[in-house]
Amino acid sequence: MKGKWKALTFFILPFVLLFAAFYLAPILYAIKQSLYKVERKGTFGKATEVFGGLDQYQRVFTDGPFWESIGRVLLFGIVQVPVMLGLALIFALLLDSGLVKGRRFFRLAFFVPYAVPGVVAAIMWGFLYSPNLSPFTAVTSAVDLLDADLVLWSMANVVTWVYVGYNMLIIYSSLLAIPQEVYEAAKIDGAGAIRTAWSIKIPLVMPAIVLTTVFSIIGTLQLLAEPAVFRTFSSAVTSTYTPNLTVYSTSSIPNFNLAAAFSVVLALATCVLSFAFLKVTQRGGDK
Amino acid sequence: MKNVNRLAPTLVMGAATLYFLVPIWWLLVAASKSRGQFTNTAPLWFADFSLVDNLRELFAYRDGVFLRWMLNSVLYTGGAALLGTLLAAMCGYALAKYRFPGREAIFNVVLSGVLVPATALALPLFLIFSQFEATNTFWSVFLPSLVNPFGVYLARIYATASVPDELLEAARLDGSGEIRTFFTISTRLMFPALVTIFLFHFVAVWNNFLLPLIMLGEEKLFPVTLGLYSWNTQVNQIPELRMLVLTGALVSIVPLVIAFLILQRFWRNGLGSGAIK
């Protein structure tokens, strides 16, 4: 019995301590910081931190560019996440259908972009989009992929390019886990490949699709590397283009109290959205 | 009719392959060209092969700072993922295999950590580390990268499913200590899960850009992603950096592509079972 407690401490304590120090403490600290503000006595007076209540939050909620950036990533997510996961699902179903030869090759080829870190992928595509550097001058001389109207969707393409293969692999793995007997009845009924995919496969891999959707929602709200890199290529990307860029540029002013408030609001929004999505899909499953 | 049925899917997959691989092919070709030929030769085919010259220039630039960045990335990512996987595995295993008061509370708190985006932590972490004057150090990026709540979640699920209680009981009767049992028996049973947790963790740290961006000021400590980013922001002022950015981008993805090719068998199997439960 004594041995059990010793073992438990050994197993759990290291993680719990690190989790408390680098997960819980920052959250609490951010909340605390967001409740303070810096006050100066006169123009050149010494700056002191005083309790400001919800002052910073009032600034957050009246900050036009911040809410514009939230709207921008939401629009981005509403379009990009379904496109990306739709493609991932189609590719996974095609791989699983047995209609395509060279499965191993396709699986690897689609997955390779996932090995490219977001920053590097954005740099690469930045070059590909630039009118004077791109290999696709036929396209880039006709449309400016980096102007204010299109740059968001150019970034969506970068994210899609990186993550389709990864999501495809998650969905494909759960397709592989479906036991063959499940298909027997469908075969006897004479159901075709599309019919089988629609009525049997997709419902069975729903948990995997839900999981990838939640991860994608979280990822979309955190969009940072792509817009940060694209600032070099396009003047349309401002320093407050996405919520995380706002956090970064506010903290480099530096206004840490306001940046902390932005962080707290963003983290809350992310939790609420992914939690709401989980709840909605679970309710759908119960019916 | 049968052939038509196969033709369309193959065409779709072929087109998608082009979409995924052409950019990487372009990067390879571009990194093999001299500065002069980069803009005035066919972009998707090789000109005079100067990849070696470009590499030499890349690794010599500013006393070889690029090599330093690559090593940093390996340390930050590999180190944090290895150690972090072990910590997550131990915690998840204990939560699965022992009954004790507060077990569910710990699990729920850790699980809600999964929904907290890592980037929301970067700024407060910076503020905390600056209280101890520890920003701009190796540890300021390494230590926070160790924590992987999703790993605990996965480890608990796998341990419940793959480590039978009877086996642990038998080990106890044989006089094996709890900790020894974990390292000799349980980790072996959990191995596919551990590979999955490791890879998830590896990629998460590799892609975490905001933390090093906020935390680090000294170039010597940068991971390769931040280093390339900082060069890329200077391209407009220092045009010769452009070839270095391209060559560096190519070099930075080679290790990860190789690792994926080697580990993809485990990666695929582990992922599937993780997603289903």
- CATH class of the largest domain in chain B reads Mainly Alpha
What share of residues are in beta strands of chain A? under 5%
Helical residues, percent of chain B: over 70%
Based on CA atoms alone, the radius of gyration of chain A comes out at: 24 Å
Secondary-structure element pattern of chain B, one letter each: HHHHHHHHHHHHHH
- Count of spatially separate domains of chain A: 2
Sheet bearing the most strands of chain A, described? 2 strands, antiparallel
Q: CATH homologous superfamily of the largest domain in chain B - what is it?
A: MetI-like
CATH topology tier name of the largest domain in chain B:
MetI-like fold
Shape annotation of chain A: globular
The number of helices of chain A is 13
Q: Indicate the mean pLDDT of chain B.
A: 87
Shape of chain B: globular
Tally of distinct domains of chain B: 2
Poorly predicted regions of chain B are: 272-277
> The CATH topology of the largest domain in chain A is what?
MetI-like fold
Mean of residue pLDDT of chain A? 88
**Helix percentage range of chain A:** over 70%
Going by CATH, what is the homologous superfamily of the largest domain in chain A? MetI-like
Order of helices and strands of chain A: HEEHHHHHHHHHHHH
Number of strands of chain B: 0
